[in-house]
Automatic annotation (TrEMBL):
Protein name: Fe/B12 periplasmic-binding domain-containing protein
UniProt cross-references to Gene3D superfamilies, sorted A to Z: 1.20.58.2180, Nitrogenase molybdenum iron protein domain
Pfam family, one: Peripla_BP_2
Domain (Fe/B12 periplasmic-binding) ranges: 46-304
Originating species: Methanospirillum stamsii
């Protein structure tokens, strides 16, 4: 069959257009939290998270259908399975530094989302040629930036920005209230981590939200989340408020009835509280942490806050998690004393 010159030109032009279109759409460049440019497919469909907190934001922006494996982390698995069925059904290649590289490679991910802190496993993932986008959720400023990066990975910039705008607006309002607290009225917080005499340093997200609400973590100079201290050290710090995290081995009643703690002014004044949780613990760097920040300020400075916490909780879960909570649900949530299992990863 003979083709005219016009037909040949049309075929060539069509091929050029198609090739050009594919080249444009084939890959995009994502700049991660370290400033590293990472090439990934423009329409990414096989993503693995090894960070235990990012999967919740991926759900919030409606991109969980692109995950082929995820690290759920210290979440309420029963609730995750009920309300986040895709996440609950996904396999895991490991969490944090406990990542099985062989299993990860079998999943054939187009990109892995990991924390900037997981140095060794990040190096291993890069070594085998899998694109890796690093985020940092432990700093309040980097949390919003990391959410923006995740939004770009999935092409969900608008959905990500909607949450970021909400987060920034709430945090700004909380900080304005915190800034209005006079020096004489400022209170300090002791965070009981896995056990009453285990606390977290000033480089952790919990210490950051303490600053934002107008308070401070008493464990100045410590770093990391597993610092064992003595009861004498707690008395020397003399915190205004004791906050037990949901994975603490003790509860509020345990501290109030413990003879070792009974002379601490915060205990005598019953300024001992346990951080709430729902899908995940509210003080962890997940979307729910904004509720933890509001809750913390309402506990430490009840006379200074102007928001209705119960309404904020209901609005938040309806807007971002598609979950309708009744007044009774909120009451039960705030009174829930069940424990969270927080597995300790091996060092990186």
């Amino acid at each position: 069959m003979k083709l005219s010159l016009i037909h040949v030109c049309c075929i060539l032009l069509t091929g050029i257009v198609l090739l050009t279109g594919c080249a444009v759409a084939e890959e995009i460049t994502i700049t991660d939290i370290t400033g590293t440019d990472v090439q990934i497919p423009a329409d990414v469909s096989r993503v693995v998270t090894v960070d235990p907190f990012s999967s919740q934001f991926i759900y919030v922006i409606g991109a969980d259908d692109r995950l082929v494996a995820t690290c759920i982390g210290p979440a309420n698995r029963e609730l995750v399975n009920k309300t986040q069925k895709r996440l609950g059904a996904l396999p895991s290649a490991g969490c944090k530094t406990n990542v099985n590289l062989e299993e990860l490679m079998k999943l054939e991910p187009e990109v892995v989302i990991s924390s900037v802190d997981y140095t060794k496993i990040n190096d291993d993932i890069e070594r085998v040629g899998i694109p890796i986008v690093k985020i940092d959720l432990e700093q309040a400023d980097n949390l919003a930036k990391s959410y923006d990066i995740i939004g770009k990975v999935f092409g969900k910039e608008e959905e990500a920005q909607e949450f970021i705008d909400y987060y920034n607006q709430k945090m700004k309002s909380i900080q304005e209230t915190g800034d209005s607290i006079t020096d004489t009225d400022k209170k300090t917080i002791y965070f009981g981590q896995r056990s009453p005499l285990q606390t977290l340093g000033d480089d952790y997200y919990e210490a950051e939200i303490a600053r934002i609400i107008g308070s401070a973590n008493v464990a100045q100079g410590l770093s990391g989340g597993d610092n064992t201290v003595t009861i004498d050290q707690v008395y020397n710090w003399d915190p205004s408020v004791v906050i037990l995290l949901p994975y603490n081995s003790a509860n509020v009643e345990d501290i109030l009835s413990d003879s070792a703690w009974e002379s601490l002014p915060a205990v005598q004044e019953k300024q001992v509280y346990q951080m709430p949780k729902y899908l995940m613990s509210w003080e962890l760097p997940v979307p729910e942490s904004i509720l933890g920040t509001m809750w913390l300020q309402s506990m430490v400075y009840p006379d200074a806050v102007t928001f209705d916490l119960a309404k904020e909780i209901q609005d938040f879960y309806k807007k971002f998690y598609r979950i309708e909570l009744s007044d009774e649900d909120v009451k039960n949530l705030l009174q829930d004393k069940s424990k969270v299992v927080l597995n300790k990863p091996s060092s990186s």
